Amino acid sequence: MEKASNSFSGGRKYRNNDITVYWKPDACVHASYCYRELIEVFDPGRRPWVDMNGAETDRIIEVVNMCPTEALTWKWNDEERNKGISKDQTNHVIFRRPELLGTMEQAVQENPVSVKIMTDGPIVIKGDFTFQYGGNKKEFKEGIISLCRCGTGYHLPFCDGTHRKIGFEDK
Amino acid sequence: MSNMETNTEKKPVTLVEVIDDGPLKITGNIIIKDLKRDVTESPSEVYLCRCGRSEKKPYCDCSHKK
Fold it and tell me: What residue spans define the domains of chain A?
């Protein structure tokens, strides 16, 4: 049932001999795992910002899997190798973007909401929670939001990556 | 009578609230991981700094008012 697709709408793809990494900018919440872990491959200040020659394939996979959204995902170039591999292993659709959650009918889990204070970066909140901002309330189920901690973003209260430009240091 | 569990549309117990010109207030069932300080905790209520000026990051110390 595998269907080859050469086009990739919604983003760009980068490949080495082993894998292809897919980048969907709209899904990024600036959690910053990628460049903190592997600046040799993921350098936001470089164009193109992904250099697949910057590290071994295993290491690239490891860091792509850290991405809390599906902004970064990967696949083996050899389709045979993708068979039997779970979506979690390729970082596909573990958490969905908030805008896509409206129609999701999923049982609320008892799991606690994860609040991650990123190193010199935003607050990344994942799970089932109610978000209240400016008098509006919105319920998230398996949602993810990234909130500014440096106070200088252009899309407050959300993170837009400005902390990196101003050199925000959490100390 | 029927208990609350029969309600299939359970509301999230955790509330994430952006306080205008103030901190982020989170109440409910959470696990906070501070990656830089390698601290993990589960408070039932917490106020996190949003202005970048707190001396007690990631927590609010009301520096935003200064």
Answer: 12-90, 98-166
In tens, the pLDDT along A57-93 reads 999 999 998 888 889 999 999 988 888 777 767 776 4
Partner-chain contact A113 B58, CB within 8 Å: no
Range of the domain at B23: 15-65
- In B, which residues are within 8 Å of A127 by CB distance? 12, 14
Residues of chain A neighbouring B29 (CB-CB closer than 8 A) = 110, 112-113
What pLDDT, in 10s, does the model give residues A91-100?
764 433 343 3
B55 located within any domain? yes
Name the average pLDDT for chain B: 86
DSSP secondary structure string, B1-46? ---GGG-SSPPPS-EEEE-TTS-EEEESSEEEEETTTTEEE--SEE
CATH class of this structure's domain A12-90: alpha beta
Pick B30's closest partner by Cβ from A107, A115, A132: A115
